[in-house]
What we know:
- The protein is elongated.
- The protein starts with a strand and ends with a helix.
- The relative contact order is 0.12.
- The protein has helices spanning 15-28, 42-47, 66-77, 90-101, 117-123, 135-143, 169-176, 197-210, 225-234, 250-253, 271-278, 291-294, 309-320, 323-340, 343-358, and strands at residues 2-6, 32-38, 52-56, 81-84, 105-109, 129-132, 151-153, 184-188, 215-219, 241-245, 259-262, 283-286, 301-304.
- It contains 15 helices and 13 strands.
- By secondary structure, the protein is an alpha/beta fold.
Amino acid sequence: MRVLHVEGGRHLYGGAFQVLHLLRGLHARGHENLLACPAGCALGEAAAPVARVRGLAMHGDADLLLVPRLARLIRDERPDLVHLHSRIGADLMGGIAARLTGVPVVHTRRVDNPEARWLVALKYRLHDRVIAISEGIARVLRGEGLPPEKLRVVRSAVDWQRYAGPGDRAAAAARLGVPATGPWLAVVAQLIERKGHRFLLRALPPLVAAHPDLRVFFFGQGPQGPDLARQIQALGLGAHVTLAGFRDDLDELLPCLDLLVHPALMEGLGVSLLQAASAGVPIVASRAGGIPEAVRNGENGLLVPPGDVAALGAALAALLADPARRRALGTGGRALMAREFSIDAMVEGNLGVYRELLG
Length: 359
């Protein structure tokens, strides 16, 4: 089977990393991958051993010229189907290009942002199948009028064994430039408003009073960085909160954490939650979107209402005071990832959709 994958993201995290997992799995099963992505992007470089990479100009949702660029590529390469992986212009423009060339098209939806019913009716008419990466996203799509016969659910995956090694706290502390002592918390997410970093900042003062050596890391980058820096200083948290930027060594850092915090208001599923659970790190997260599929309350973490600062603080305080419970939740997370979020299951799920579509 020859599949053309289209991904507009430039950075190798989140959805783009899921695409890489899929490309590797399909290649290992003898299928041929073509990848259209922004020229010179990190995904293209990582995928080169398992896909023929075509770097294209991709300028976002308003890039109308992406249609003829992709249509030309489809006519040249003649794939059996096109799989659209991102919303950065690829979902709409890629759908039009596939329709113009008469090639079956699949779109993976990774976010639970609501869309207008008229847009759903118009855009998803272009796609033969829509894959939601969580039941939470599937509920949103069904509620917006997507025909059930087009919708399939294939959960995101994690290479859980990669994150399951023991952490070296001393080495991590040296790398991050902080003391190795005290509880370590982290948020692994883009620095954007809907990820909810501000709720954690507001919950921190009483936690810092109870744990004076508490350290909190915000791993990620994004436009909210300067505003978060101002909030940290205004709350007097400069000695406790570190804006650590994007990291490519999370497999070494996550096992050193005591807790992962994910106070997002919206989330399709949350790859960082899968990574942390694989590392045996208990999680405190919002009960939003697809998060409850990755964080089972009482099994590998605690869930709180989105935006509820008091509930978030209470959950963190309870786990910081109970190391035995943290260990139990961490063990539960590793078992959950191995059982339900394997890369093999994700690859086979996508292949099942391809085979169904192609007959």
